[in-house]
Amino acid sequence: MDSVQLRDTYVLTQGEEDPCYIIGKKPGPYVEEKSRNIYCRLGKHMAFAGIDARTERTRHQINYPETYDLFFKTISDRLAASKGEIKHLMLLLGVPIAYPRLQWLENILQSPLIGPLRFLNKRFGIAGSFFNQFDGNVDLLDDLDDHYTAHQHKKERKELILRLQDLAKKHSVRISILSGDVHLAAVGRFYSNAKQNIKAEHDWRYIPNVISSAITNKPPPTAVANLLAKRNKIHHLDSETDETLLEIFNQNPGVGEPGVKPKSAENNHATMPSRNYAIICESSHHNAEGAMSNGVNGHTNGDVVGYGDNAAFTPPKNPREPLHMGEKGAGTNHPAAQGINRTGLGGANGLDVTLRVEKNPSDNQGHTQGYGFSIPALESGGYKGQGEKW
């Protein structure tokens, strides 16, 4: 620890670390502590992991390479030790990783065009809140640098996703990511492109990123959310993996109710600038006999009225639309939208996800609108011999 920070300070020290922690091997460059990543079980079939993306962060790196090595080795060993019991791994990343790019904005904020405005700020205090008081740089640029999608983190981001795909394929475990920080709701996904012809239930590259924040922070302006939605392009991580946001917001929350104003443009179905929270739970019950049921009228494994069979689902040409049966009808009409009953649409060991979005910020009761979709479990056994090059 930093001796200066310890001066005249009492620090509680533990004799033995919690076994849930995966502790980095060396202190961070600015925060002189070792990173604390985490892994734990959430019941029999689910596990939870989190990457400490702060302690080792600089402008040009998020985590040390050796920290990633330690993290993935530990997770892989513990998944192997479960002997197939763990079917779903929920990964916590503080900042979204499947998110629209804003590199053009980064380029503008770093360009000489900002020079005159910076001079006026320094001399006359113009645009005071636009610049950081510590280093004189644009304050928004610091937020953009924080994102995995920032230009300087592009290589590290790609390597992280490819290692997650490798982990999912090796252990036949679905990996889903939960993120926040951006003060709006959205759902990003990585997935095998159409050329691979792999259904989501067998696609180890299908990694959804549930973005939910924040329950107290003020959301961004509508114009910012609409701009992000317009930047919702189909990006190519590599020759086999694409990514884009799911168009889950089929309508504004509380549309038509008295006193409720639209949160986003009518053509924005990908980002929702409103306070929100997420509910994530298993899609099916595991009863004593080992059979799966969704708890809704006795239906099992996706047999929800009006949804049909997974095998009959045809993926769309536009991947912003549902990629599998669990995403079909995503939004307010999805069986998972209320966050109360299990839908079974994720099949055995899948997940139901609900985003509860605030309707009216002036409502002291905090009424919300639900948007739902389901995540299928992964069965990648038939593909274990493929994709060694990545």
TrEMBL record:
Extent of Basic and acidic residues compositional bias: 318-327
Domain (PhoD-like phosphatase) ranges: 42-110, 124-294
Annotated GO CC locations: membrane
One Pfam family recorded for the sequence: PhoD_2
Superkingdom as given in the UniProt entry: Eukaryota
Stretches the record annotates as Disordered: 315-335, 360-390
PANTHER family tied to this protein: MEMBRANE PROTEIN, PUTATIVE-RELATED, PHOD-LIKE PHOSPHATASE DOMAIN-CONTAINING PROTEIN
Protein name: PhoD-like phosphatase domain-containing protein
